[in-house]
Specification:
Blueprint lengths: L9 E6 L4 H11 L4 E3 L12 E6 L3 H7 L3 H17 L3 E6 L8 H10 L5 E5 L7 H6 L4 E4 L6 H7 L2
Parallel strand pairs: 1-2, 1-3, 3-4, 4-5, 5-6
Helix pairs in contact: 3-4
Length: 158
C-alpha cells in the first residue's frame, strides 16, 4: 500500500462464514485498529469508515450460522453496495490459504474482491493468480503467512 486509505473505526464481518474471520479479528487487534464485529451483520448494520471483509467460504460455518451459500452471496452483495453508498473504504482479507479456495470460497471472493479498495492475501491462497485477475488495478499485497497480515493492515490505516 503506497499510502494509507482507511480510517478508524472499522467494521469487520465474514463473507463465507469461515473461521478465518476470528483470525482477522485477532490481526486487527494486534494492529491496534479500533473495530466493531459481527460475522453475520446485514447491510443496514454496518458502520464506521472502513469495512474489513474476511473472505472465505465454509460449508460447516454456513451451516452453523443457518445460512445458505446463496443467501450469503446476496448478503455480501448488499453489504458491499451499502458500504459504497456510505463511502466506506473496503478492505478484503483472505487468510485461509489454499484450504479456503475452491468452488464455494471462490464464489464469495468473486462477489467482493472486485469492489474492494485494497486486498490482502496470504500467498498460498493465490497460487493460481485468481486475486490479480479479479483485482484489476485494485491495490493488493501478498504476504507469506497469516501473522504477516498485521503490517499491511497497519499501513492501510491513516
Amino acid at each position: 500500500m503506497a499510502a494509507p486509505i482507511a480510517e478508524q473505526p472499522a467494521y469487520l464481518t465474514s463473507i463465507g462464514q469461515s473461521a478465518d474471520v476470528q483470525m482477522v479479528k485477532t490481526l486487527l487487534t494486534r494492529a491496534d485498529i479500533k473495530f466493531d464485529f459481527n460475522s453475520i451483520v446485514e447491510a443496514d448494520g454496518i458502520s464506521g469508515k472502513t469495512l474489513v471483509l474476511a473472505v472465505g467460504g465454509s460449508s460447516k460455518g454456513l451451516g452453523a450460522a443457518g445460512i445458505k451459500a446463496e443467501d450469503e452471496l446476496v448478503r455480501a452483495a448488499e453489504i458491499v453496495k451499502k458500504a459504497k453508498e456510505q463511502n466506506m473504504v473496503i478492505i478484503s482479507v483472505h487468510v485461509g490459504g489454499e484450504a479456503r479456495r475452491g468452488e464455494l470460497s471462490d464464489k464469495f471472493i468473486n462477489e467482493v474482491v472486485p469492489y474492494s479498495d485494497y486486498i490482502i492475501v496470504v500467498k498460498d491462497g493465490n497460487k493460481d493468480g485468481f486475486f490479480e485477475k479479479l483485482a484489476k488495478g485494485v491495490p493488493m499485497d501478498t504476504v507469506e503467512k497469516i501473522t504477516a497480515v498485521v503490517d499491511p493492515l497497519k499501513a492501510a490505516f491513516k
